[in-house]
Amino acid sequence: MGKIIGICNQKGGTGKTTTAINLSSYLALAKKKTLLIDMDPQGNATSGISFSSQNKPSIYEIILKRAEIKNCIYSSKWQNLSIIPGNISLTGGEIELVGLEHRENRLKEELNEISQDYDYIIIDAPPSLGLLTVNILVSADTVIVPVQCEYYALEGVSKLLHTVHLVKERLNSHLEIEGVLLTMADFRTRLALQVIDEVRSYFKDKAFNTIIPRNIKLAEAPSFGKPIHFYDPICVGSKAYINLAQEVLGYKIEESLLEIVQEKAEKDETLSA
């Protein structure tokens, strides 16, 4: 059965979607069959891997039981990486869930049908603690919490951790924190270093060793519909997400494997140009 990891923080702009896309892609590059689920109504994880959900059933139809999950899984351009897309319909979906029975378990019930088909399922959460996020927490084995290296870094994280505790106590007893991920770090500033120290002091071994730097290439890649490895495999952002994937996997990804995949991607891009 695949490991299900939610990428959650109710605060926007913390790097949730960037993390979901790039962690998924590096797990796939490590030959792990990976499914990315876009539960954010903005649908940025969907477009970030160059997939269009237009006229296709999405996670919205799945959680409202209007489509079977196996019919809503699509292959991406990238080997070993599939996606269940999300779109703006999810905004209304959260409201529709309120009046339904077992509303917190809708996603879990569906994932039970396909989780054995994947090594990893990565879920990009919306920037809220509503029913969509609760569904993710009920379904997940672990949660990654991206925390931006800024003045109000820990603001709201306590609410998320309280929600995680409640879900674990009442709905999902095996839910754990995979780790807290520091993102958008500008190592030239004293503030970033202070935030890093504060987060690591507070979370201790639950803070990832990897820190995601502020990097223009990471910001540019989604507009090209590419995970960072296929946009700029040698930039500092790419190297950081390789390190994160290796922490999640618990072992090093072979560099030769990454080079082979990169060469193939460049060849395919040249042929399609």
**What's the total number of strands?**
8
Q: Can you give the mean pLDDT?
A: 91
Structure annotation, total helices:
12
Structural class: alpha/beta
CATH first level: which class? Answer: Alpha Beta
Strand order of the largest sheet: 3-4-2-5-1-6-7-8
Compressed to H and E, one letter per element, the order equals EHEHHEEHHEHEHEHEHHHH
Tell me what you see in this structure.
By secondary structure, the protein is α/β, with parallel strands linked by helices. The chain has a single domain (3-272), classed as P-loop containing nucleotide triphosphate hydrolases (Rossmann fold, 3-Layer(aba) Sandwich), CATH 3.40.50.300. Helices cover 43% and strands 16% of the residues. It contains 12 helices and 8 strands. An 8-stranded mixed sheet has the order 3-4-2-5-1-6-7-8, with helices on both faces. α1 (16-29) crosses α11. The longest helix has 18 residues, at 255-272. The termini are far apart.
Which labels suit this protein?
single chain, 273 residues, alpha/beta, Rossmann fold, eight-stranded mixed β-sheet, 12 helices, 8 strands, 43% helix
